Amino acid sequence: MTGVAKQPEHDQQTHISKLSLTNFRNYATLSIGLDPGAVVFSGDNGAGKTNLLEAISLLTPGRGLRRAPYADVAREGGDGGFAIHARLDGPDGPVEIGTGVAGGDAAGESGRRVRINGAAARSAEDMLEWLRVVWLTPAMDALFTGPAADRRRFLDRQVLAIDPGHGQRALDYEKAMRGRNRLLAEGSRDGAWFDAIETQMAETGVAIAAARAELVRLLAAMIDRLPSAGPFPQADIGLSGALESEVGTSAAVDVEERFRQALAEGRDRDRAAGRTLDGPHRSDLVVRHRPKAMPAELCSTGEQKALLVGMVLSHARLTGEMSGMTPILLLDEIAAHLDAGRRAALFSILEELNCQAFMTGTDAALFSSLKGRAQFLTVDHGTVGPTI
Ligand SMILES: Nc1ncnc2c1ncn2[C@@H]1O[C@H](COP(=O)(O)OP(=O)(O)OP(=O)(O)O)[C@@H](O)[C@H]1O
Ligand SMILES: [Mg+2]
Description:
Blueprint: E1 15-24, E2 27-33, E3 38-42, H1 49-57, H2 70-73, E4 82-89, E5 95-101, E6 113-116, E7 119-120, E8 133-136, H3 148-162, H4 166-185, H5 191-224, E9 235-240, H6 242-247, H7 252-265, H8 267-273, E10 284-289, E11 294-295, H9 301-323, E12 328-331, H10 340-353, E13 357-361, E14 374-380, E15 383-386
Parallel strand pairs: 3-13, 3-14, 8-12, 12-13
Antiparallel strand pairs: 1-2, 1-4, 4-5, 5-6, 6-7, 9-10, 10-11, 14-15
């Protein structure tokens, strides 16, 4: 490197400068200082690396990267509760975010609490005002070959990062659909009830489809800006789902009306099936590997991973441009599947994105090209210290 090498600028970036955990998974208590930029957690299997990423993933609405019940997250042998505390530094100055579940509320079914700068937040969504967190874990390696529900969840998380209202929309739709499914199960013929619920489903369902279609449009445009022969192949992305395809060509009110009618006409069919068969809860994200002109699910494991990494990086860039907040990236075991060339490419894209990126691996050597440009921490049975 020459003396004129550009130093990454971190002043516009929000990053976690301090993370403290209490009774979280295998951490009784932990408090660590974190650098902006790349942070590498290395350590043996079971040391607690993914647990650290999971803690950070709970700084965004939802159940975190494992989608675990809170009772599983609370440390065995603790008081049944857990707490995560993060100090953020960024353009808006320091922000303190705390979240957790009190002991005695071990089931945590009343939800976790969130405090921002010491005051109780109205909901977990309030955290989105301060930071965005995006992750890629080994469990997502089967994203293209696994069930559509996983791809929908992935898609909806991507929408949420650029459109914070999406979480509530999804909850409202789910709630209405559960109400309809209950009526179906009871064999109800209460037309007025069905009408009311289906009107709600039509409104929220079309809003969901429109937000997804918008994300896909924006992300596809971002992917098109990538070099066509880059280390991470371009993905052609699309949506399969009646509503998603209609929202692009018809006015929302018309799509809503058609969906409402379809639900009303489908009552007998749905009663026989025992559930609602039409709607955005059945849609799918369709991905193709552009250079190979191949559906993603037919690509090799490594090709699928590279495709997914490319999508996540493009989405991170999109989120930064749309929200002004470059997301914090959690890349669990990221180095394992990538060859040396792709690893180096990933590291330089992360620097160019100017985001805080947490990466884990059992072998710190896979990250050796980041020496001097990243913070290296060793995780060992619920303790974290500098890597020597
Ligand atoms: N509620 C809990 N209380 C105490 N320990 C827990 C709890 N939940 C999980 N653990 C333990 O935390 C340990 C660390 O898990 P983690 O998944 O973070 O490991 P890791 O470092 O990512 O390992 P690997 O390299 O295998 O992915 C595991 O041994 C697990 O049994
Ligand atoms: Mg792990």
